[in-house]
Amino acid sequence: MDSRKLEHLAELATTGSFSRAAENLHLTQPALSKSIQALEEELGAVLIDRRRKPFALTAKGEMVVQRARRLLKDMDELHRVAAEDIGPEGLLRIGFGAGPWATLSRGFIQHVVEHFPRLHLQVRHGSGDALVGALHERQMDLAIVDARSFPSSPHLQAETLGHLHGSAVCRVGHPLQRLERVTLKDLLAYPTLNTSISDEAVRWVQESHGVDLDLRQHTTVECEQLETLLDVCARSDAVFLGVREAAHPWVLRGEMAVLAVHPLITEFSVPIALVSLAGRSPSQLTTWVRDFVADALDERHFAEGRPF
Known about the structure:
D-Maltodextrin-Binding Protein, domain 2; 9-stranded mixed beta sheet; 11 strands; Arc Repressor Mutant, subunit A; two-stranded antiparallel ribbon; 3 domains; 308 residues; alpha/beta; globular
């Protein structure tokens, strides 16, 4: 398949206009139309609903555009790495907060090992405050943390790259799975496991569930080691209250399930930021880390059952 056809489709979806897409691609409109038609013939699917004015992507077209964008991004990365011979070199000191550590660190380290063998990576795991302190002391280059834990400072800069989502998770076969509707009261009938709960999360539970309670006072075990909490949850009747994406490996293995609590806990989200020292131009490594994290936090990872 000619990648240019995918590029043409992606640009058309971005602009929403044949004329603007053709102009951006330095093509004539007939040439762009011909390229899209050729792609449809090659895939054996209608991607554009031409009966609507303006045109609209079909359901199949939406899916192809999403995958095409990922493929084009991977191809760009491949060309960039090839042009740099063996990829980035030097030292990268990076820290992960509790949620990012559980959801991102494994894939991040694996990617470095497989693609950047000459990069010396130093990884830390700690609280947001500790990691931000290490940045101030110039003991670390980058930190990936809950954006709400990032203090206002003229010496640091932060960019929110995506969100992690709240959840209630239990082992497969848990008695709560037999309930058609799971309430907060149902959850609290069992031991609960979680990392530290923020004031914002407490207020959200109070407002959305119409209760006057501090969820922290009903916690059975509080621990910053998410993997430990999830292992215990998978082997007991305890319920994990925390980052949904952290439980993703257990869910994929069929060991745990996300409970549909009403109102939905997944509506509560945690913004994740990449934090660095202010005043520095983004290095090649910083740009790569930013792109990796933004892609990993894409909601499609969970929706499509892909590992993080």
